[in-house]
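In this section we walk through a basic example: taking a raw amino acid sequence and producing a predicted 3D structure, encoded as discrete structure tokens. The instruction is simple. Fold the sequence below.
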Amino acid sequence: MAVTDEAIEKIKTMILSGRLKPGDRLPKEPDLAAQLGLSRNSLREAVKALSLLNVLDVRQGDGTYVTSLEPSLLLEALTFILDLHQDESVVELFQVRAVLDSAASGLAAQWATDEQLAELAALLDSVGPDPTVEELVANDLEFHRLIARAGGNDVLASLLDSLAHRTARARIWRGVTQEQAVERTMSEHRGLLDALVAHDVEAAKARAAVHVGGVVEWLRKAL
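The resulting token sequence is shown next.
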């Protein structure tokens, strides 16, 4: 194992063991290096790497702190990777979305409250009779975001949020070029909401997978 990788592992172990908690300030560099049996240079490189991953926050003149470690913060690095690969891997991104959306919808069917279901219904009702493709995609993004949040798993919701925004361009492209894409999307959303209201886990999972899977099928043909 490279010296820097070893340093990263040791800091990670401190966080996982609870010695360092979200918001905690790290000991001064010479003290921490001595505690971990590392050179100050390797410790410095490890801190730099972990700050790029939003695990640590280096504040000039103040010190280095553990971040909040919230999923949305830690997944920003994933968002950057998805941006780089959007054009060449968009089909694979949608395949991953189909799996995760299905799981999130199953959880929402179990745990969504009456208030959350009413919010979803109101969101769908807010779409006018003849929405633009951009309006529909914005509604679609919010619809799936609310479903993921209703499932109660913050990590899954953050992953889906990262994927959803990276695939929005392809959905606009589909709406412009595929016949009846707008009508089909609204119909599938209504069907998914019906399954959630009925708290039918398997139906919700299946409808979500079919909904996103339809985009995958279209993309394969379009590309």
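Looking at the output, two observations stand out. The chain has a mean pLDDT of 83. The beta strands are 56-59, 63-66. In the next section we compare this with other chains.
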